[in-house]
Amino acid sequence: PGWSPRVVPARGRKSRHDPPAKSKAGRLKLPPPVDPEELLVVLDRYRQHRLVLGALRAEFRAEVLQKKREEHLGGEDSAELLEEHRRLMAWNDEENARQRERREERLRKEAEEEKRRKLEVAEKQARKMEAFMKEKEKEVLQLQEEAKSFITPENLDARIEECLDNPRNYNFAIDKDGRVVKRTVLS
């Protein structure tokens, strides 16, 4: 009796797969009409507002930074701060130069390594192509040797005569060891 936790309540939103209600089936949702002249005026006023606020923020930011700079350098130890700043900038320049030299050295080594690797690949490819060509030459020579025993129209009559003079019998049985067990006689 009453509500139980296993029963899903029937009230709530529709899922996205439910069809629209019958009363809303033919309804087209249209955005509210906007007057084009009023839209242009509003967009222009928003643009001007953003420009003015951006300029004011930049002005205030510059003013605050100027005050901080004056407070920082306005003290009696401004000469020491300037000297420390100069010293730190010189150290920074030296460090940048050292890092640039290291980077150039690394890039040069990488370029040399890449060139060496490409050269090795090219040599390997050349050796592979040379081996391939030798193998193909062997095949061509072997085919030329085999072509000497081919039957051609010129030697066709001689080969036929040779086969008729030396008949062969292929009608035989062999055992598991490959020996001829039984052979029929040619008729």
TrEMBL record:
It comes from Onychorhynchus coronatus (Royal flycatcher). The keyword Ribosomal protein applies. This is Small ribosomal subunit protein mS26. Keywords: Mitochondrion, Ribonucleoprotein, Ribosomal protein, Transit peptide. Residues 1-33, 90-117 are annotated as: Disordered. The lineage of its organism: Eukaryota, Metazoa, Chordata, Craniata, Vertebrata. Coiled coil: none annotated. Belongs to the mitochondrion-specific ribosomal protein mS26 family. The gene is Mrps26. Residues 95-117 have a biased composition (Basic and acidic residues). It holds the Pfam family MRP-S26. One of its GO terms (cellular component) is mitochondrial small ribosomal subunit. The keyword Magnesium does not apply.
